[in-house]
Structure formats: C-alpha cells, structure tokens
Amino acid sequence: MEVDVAVAFHIESSNGFTPEWKEMEDLIVVHSTHTLVCNGITENDIEDGSYLKPVSISALKQNGLLQSLAAGGDQTEADEVDLELERAQQEWDALESIQPVPAEELAPSPLISFNEALQHFQTTDLANLLRNIQPTVRRTGLAVVTHFLFGPPRLHRELTEERDLVFAIAQCPLDNTQPVHMRVLQTIYRKLTCTKADCPRYGPHWENIGFQGTDPSTDLRGTGFLALMHTLYLVMDPETLPLARDIYKLSQHPVQNFPFSVMSINLTRIVLHALREEVLTKECNRRQQVVSVLNEVYVATFLHLYEVWRSQRKTISDSGHVLKDVELYVKKNPKQLLKHLHCYLQERCSGIGHRTSPDLLSHGNRSLGDGASYSQSHGDKEGKINFTGVCELPPEMEGEARLI
To answer: Could you tell me which residue ranges the ELMO domain spans (predicted)?
Structure first.
C-alpha cells in the first residue's frame, strides 16, 4: 500500500491551477537549462509559482531520496562509532599492563627458625668472606708472651671452623635476593609486633622495632647478618621470647625508650669482640660449641642491659655509658652472666619472675606496668640522642665500648 507524502513547502500560482509535475528521468543533467533545487524541483517551477502535489513513496524510491537519506544517516553513525572505538583503543594502550598477583605472594611468608637460617649459611659458599675475617686479636711483642702465659686457653681445633663461620656471617650483608634473608627480617618484625602479615621491605615501619630508617640493612655495618641472627634466636626461642617482648616493651616507654634493633646490634658487637678476644674460649671448649655459647651470651647481655636500664631508670642519653659498662662486665664475668640468665629463665618458667602477656603487647601500649614510677622522676623534655650505624672498632680500641 502506497502512502502519499506531501513536501513541506507549498507555492500557489496566480491563477490557482495546479500544474503537472514533470518526472525527472535523470537527476543530473549537465547541459539542462533548468537548475535542480531539490529532487527535481527547478528554479523555473518556483518562479512560475508552481507547487508540489503529494508524492508517493515509490516515486521517492525511484528518485533515490530515501536511499540517500538512509545511507547518509548510517554513514554518520558509523563514523561516530569508529571515533569512539579509536579513542577507547588509545586510552587502553596508554594504560600499563596489570599483572595478576600470585596467591602465594598475598599470603604471609612462613616464619623461619634459627636452625633453618643457620643451615642456610652452613650450606652456602662463604669462601670470599672467610678470607677477610679476623677471628682473634693480633698481638705483637710482649703482648704475645703475656697472652700465652696468662691469657685464656686456645680454642680447640675442631671448633675453629664453627668460630670462623660466625665471623663470616658477621661479614655477610643483607641480600634482598635471598629468600632466607627476607624471611629472617619478616620473622623478627612479626614476632616483636605480634602481627601476622608481612610488611614491606622498605618503609618507616622498621623504625617501630628500633631501626634508624626505612632500610634495616644500613644499620648492620660491622656486625652484618649476625646481628639479625641473634635477634632471630631471641624471638624464636620459646624460653627467651617473653624476655624479648619485655625488652621491646621497655624500648617503647615514653621516657626510657631506646631503639630496640640498634641496641641489639650493639650487643652483638660486644659479644663478637668477646669471642675475638678469646674471653668465651673456655666456655666454648667446655661445651664443645661456639654458636650456642655466643647466642646465650648475647641473650644474657641483653638481659643484663634490660635490668640495668629498667632498675636504674636509664634514658637514651645514658646509652653510651651503659654500653661501655655492659661490655666491661661481659668480658670480666662471662660465667656469672650465663649463670644469671639460666636462673632468670628457670624462675620465669616456674612463674616466680615477672611475666608479660604477649596479648597485651601492641604499638599503642608504650608504657610499662610500673611506668608511672619511672616517669615521675624524669621530665617530659628529655632530649633524644639518635643511634648511628655500628661499625668495627679499630684493634687498638677493642677494649672500649662506645656508640658510633
């Protein structure tokens, strides 16, 4: 069924008659005297006052009007779609490719024990580090004779390899490419702060456990990875973990605070010098061990410092003098130091000693249970002295303790 369509404009002639609409067989006439206005409407038709009568759809189809309108609309829409796709493709190409994170990287790394970490160094080639160690103090002249006659006994030959391993670990830096190194670092942080998730390798959170900056490796000069091994032993041994958290809690005290990890590194330096000066040789020979003796001396030294710091209400301004006194005490009384540690651990296991619940330890809890008595005797304007990196002491100064 055909429908008539009326063209929009209507021109009435002067005589009122409707002229016949002339069909155009060819829409484009090059040599025509008439100029096409729209689909066959000429200028003469408009000048003569002719108007259009209703035109059927079939006529419009023949003239190509509908086809041209439809084709033009589709082309415009297609061009717009192409532009949108091109713009979207450009935006997508500008984005960085996002790689999916493996599920195992989202899970916390497993805690590592001291023995597992030690086994890693026992099976690692440390030949380059062993060439640079200094396991004993180099003496000359009369000092050699005096040490031979009145000094401590020599270390048994079968223990020299284990002793050299200790000094080699002290030369080993923290390596980001070693999974064992990263697990040791994460284990120390999680055990001290009672958190379950791993923390970023770099960041200010390391200051929470007493490092000086965003990278713990910068504080390990002079003691190397051995300092982290000692802290790992302290926090992973079930008997010494409560002590570690007590010391860590004291390090967060508003008045008596000190950087836990840097203080621990200084104590590692002290016991390492005691081993080099052969102060611990007698105990090592008696027990036929070096690593375990050194670990216990380190814990006993930390316990001694903790009790002095806590009972005498020391602050960070006293750190230099305290460390010097601690080093002298360790070198003169290693046997009494270890005996006191054993008594302390036995009393703690039996419930006699002071006990701190791990659940009560948090970042927000920065005061001791009896911290009020400490804060009464100290002003709030206590100056703070920043610990700096620890390095090896020159041979002529090995008898002295100092903060560098």
So the answer is: 180-334
